[in-house]
Amino acid sequence: MLLPELKQRRDKIRVLMAQQGIDAALFTCNTNLIYTYGRVISGYLYLPLNAPARLFVKRPNNIEGEHIFSIRKPEQLPELIQQSELPMPRKLMLEGDELSYTEYSRLAACFPDSEVLPCGTSLIRQARSVKTEMEIEMFRRSGIAHAKAYEQIPSVYTPGMTDRQLSIEIERLMRLEGCLGIFRVFGRSMEIFMGSLLAGDNAAAPSPYDFALGGEGLDPSLPGGVNGTLLQPGQSFMVDLGGNFYGYMGDMSRVFSIGRLPEQAYAAHQTCLEIQAEVTALAKPGAVCEDLYQKAIEIVTKAGFADYFMGTVQKAKFIGHGIGLEINEAPVIAPRIKQELEPGMVFALEPKIVLPTIGPVGIENSWAVTAEGVEKLTLCQEEIIEL
Amino acid sequence: MLLPELKQRRDKIRVLMAQQGIDAALFTCNTNLIYTYGRVISGYLYLPLNAPARLFVKRPNNIEGEHIFSIRKPEQLPELIQQSELPMPRKLMLEGDELSYTEYSRLAACFPDSEVLPCGTSLIRQARSVKTEMEIEMFRRSGIAHAKAYEQIPSVYTPGMTDRQLSIEIERLMRLEGCLGIFRVFGRSMEIFMGSLLAGDNAAAPSPYDFALGGEGLDPSLPGGVNGTLLQPGQSFMVDLGGNFYGYMGDMSRVFSIGRLPEQAYAAHQTCLEIQAEVTALAKPGAVCEDLYQKAIEIVTKAGFADYFMGTVQKAKFIGHGIGLEINEAPVIAPRIKQELEPGMVFALEPKIVLPTIGPVGIENSWAVTAEGVEKLTLCQEEIIEL
Hints:
The structure is a homodimer. By secondary structure, chain A is an alpha+beta fold. Chain A folds into two domains: about 5-130, 3-Layer(aba) Sandwich (Creatine Amidinohydrolase, Chain A, domain 1), CATH 3.40.350; about 135-385, Creatinase/methionine aminopeptidase superfamily (Creatine Amidinohydrolase). Chain A is built from ten helices and 17 strands. Chain A has helices at about 5-20, 30-35, 75-85, 100-110, 120-130, 135-150, 155, 165-175, 265-280, 290-300; strands spanning about 25, 40-50, 55-60, 70, 90-95, 115, 195-200, 235-245, 250-255, 320, 330-335, 345-350, 350-355, 360, 365-370, 375, 385. In chain A, the strands form four sheets. A six-stranded mixed beta sheet of chain A has the order 4-3-2-1-5-6. In chain A, strands 11-10-12-15-16 form a five-stranded antiparallel beta sheet, sandwiched between helices. In chain A, helix 1 packs across helix 5, helix 6 (about 135-150) packs across helix 8 (about 165-175) and helix 9 packs antiparallel against helix 10 (about 290-300). The longest helix of chain A is centred in the last third of the chain and has 20 residues, at about 265-280. The radius of gyration of chain A is 22 Å and the shape is elongated. At the A-B interface, helix 4 and helix 8 of A face helix 4 and helix 8 of B.
């Protein structure tokens, strides 16, 4: 990746470090290495406040360059920092929300004379929540590829398919368009394979996670998603696969129906489109997340679908979430979130309604906050597509 | 899952707890919940040494039963433990190698009067390294499905394909045979999408991980695996996808060639088959891991392929690894590992050779240690399959 881009990102982190009197950061988790160095390695990126970053690499063994050093184990860090003519940090931050307790403790013990803080994760996530122009361009390109895959969905559907069979064909379409497959989530607990296709009443099955649509899954070791349901006339299904084509988790959901649905479904779907239109009309720098959420609740309540909004048996407690290298970044569009939108933030907005005996309707797109409003990053037909 | 099976697993953990004077364990990481409760939830399994386990569930919201309680946040744990008429633990173990530093610290703070130890991960991994009969049966079934997918590989190959295109078709075959897709690894750093197909010289590209075969990958955010190489006559490729059909990570690699390969490739492949035969002949309860490794080195050195064994540019430092709910469990078959095999251990043995300009050859199967020797769990043609 181009150095000016990396420098811009590192400097965003440095600004936040300076505010907290932190004079160095050590990053070793994959997403943070992608952000600060442009690729995954096994090793450490050491970011001083007032000097160029150093890279300490375990593997691969073929990376060389200025400020790049080979390392075998973290206990070599102090020696290598000194060799590269940097002072020991007074206040060092580590990735406290991502490193395991034992790995954090081992790294902290390498710096016995430093004050070690666990705020590395929250601080870099704050920096990451406002994207650079290059990052937004990655999202635009992902949106194009994602839409191209979804547009081919009708061509791989055949009557009599189960949700599982169709999902496999859509996964293949995504991969052929360049999807890397890997689905990155912040936090250890949420495990998702590529995303979900949720059909009929399986969409209402509650999952271990804070999702509007859960799904039973195929095995108790991976609850969530398809459960082998036959795709039946009069029912809908929603496709919500992660759009990771260049490292950035684009997010887009579309609804399909087997034949015609009951009229209620179209009314509910229109309500979600209306929520999307109204909320994105308000979304601009300075807009407050909880106000956007309240606008959605207002519209869906008036339309009479509040009981089915964002799930039924178990409801999701948000209508949108920041996206980036992980699917769940800041900001979260949810009640009691006072955060204001800023230019460069990228988020998914996903008003969804789950109708008993019919299935899910609604919409999800990815949006970038601009100077004046928002830019839609996922352009693809938004009506219910009848198969 | 059946209660006697869960009880057997929990009791294996309790035996190890008793040895260390630990009177309770708290598990919340997915693999450990699958092991001790049979499925993924969001919540906690609390395992007292001398009383039945308690389950504290955040989500899904539809789980009920004896000893199952609803929970919103970890700070409720002490109160819920007391409500279920259990004493507070004196010595409590948490999953120190899996929980994040902040999550570990938050949980530990809930038990201010207990001695809190981070050994929960290492101890449950020790228990998990010796499988129950039911777990081995899951591996057997996975092996059958895995082999069925690999047997169809020739039918999805067409000349002129790239490694990426063929990999996508094989992923689809795996999914159609029931592969859950998710690839579970111990440790935060190793990220793999389903596994790898490595062709020609791309197999030698060093990765961030301790793999015999790396691969450049398609994007710097996910180095490893296919890189868009054209599958060419006179070259080989190895398919090594994770066989997770029921939660258990079966492991199997097979080699294919486009047309005929240079004779050296067949000789190298036979060397790997010989290593497999000789090592598995030694593998039985009491066999020491490093001795198995040394046997492999002895054979490959005598055959003249030592320089290409387990990689070239960057070599893997093992020839086999335990498998289970994660791809990297105990034991590791590597130098200086004094661990002895025990009945019920399950491991993958993967002697592989990477030949410059040709590509990878070798074999990988999954094996269960029996009372007298080993049982092969992945039964599928082992010669190089010519396409």
